[in-house]
Design brief:
Length: 209
């Protein structure tokens, strides 16, 4: 069964089990999907006659949030599948020099894939921040707390995904690939930290802590 087709109860039980997947990467993607869903909810709550001056912007934001939510739902599954790909490479035979070389190459390829997938998750989750900002600045004031949770979940999604990038980079031999990935990891980490800080400062609720 696809992970996003599971009930919430089943997904949590599977995550808590001794199976290594779904793990932090899939959970980070789920956090991102929830962040997008909340930003979309606030946009949908900011429509109608009372919000006529901003309804068009909110409808556009709701559409973008829906697209991001679906992409991040895909990332939930992709992260687990990339882990399964690495495990399959580990199980390849290694009895002859040729088999050993083929196994090493398969493992390196799988590790790169396992690093690229959570980086994609982080990239997608980072796109939630502008939507959360709009929700805070122009959204229905009764949903400010939801917009703040969206921002915090987006940060969790980005950083959680980046942790999964980093742990896979440790086993990759292609230094050019590793350095390129590390540069982007640093950029996304800084962006997510700054965005959450800024968004918390936009609301009186965030200033109370």
């Amino acid at each position: 069964m696809k992970l996003m087709q599971m009930s919430a109860e089943k997904f949590l039980a599977e995550t808590a089990s001794s199976s290594p997947a779904p793990g932090g990467g899939s959970v980070s993607a789920l956090a991102g999907a929830l962040a997008a869903a909340l930003a979309g909810m606030v946009a949908n709550l900011t429509q109608g006659e009372k919000f006529a001056d901003r309804e068009a912007r909110m409808k556009t934001a709701a559409g973008k949030a829906e697209d991001l939510r679906r992409l991040l739902e895909e990332s939930v599954q992709k992260d687990t599948e990339s882990f399964d790909g690495y495990m399959a490479a580990l199980r390849l035979p290694k009895d002859t020099p040729e088999e050993k070389e083929k196994r090493v190459q398969a493992m390196q390829s799988a590790l790169q894939e396992a690093a690229q997938v959570p980086l994609e998750t982080a990239e997608r989750a980072a796109q939630v921040f502008p939507l959360a900002r709009l929700a805070l600045e122009e959204g229905n004031p009764n949903a400010q707390s939801d917009a703040l949770v969206s921002a915090m979940l987006a940060r969790t999604a980005v950083l959680g995904a980046l942790f999964n990038v980093q742990i896979n980079l440790g086993g990759i031999r292609d230094e050019q690939f590793v350095q390129k990935m590390r540069t982007r990891v640093r950029e996304l980490h800084q962006f997510a930290e700054e965005q959450e800080k800024q968004l918390l400062a936009l609301s009186p609720l965030g200033k109370e802590f």
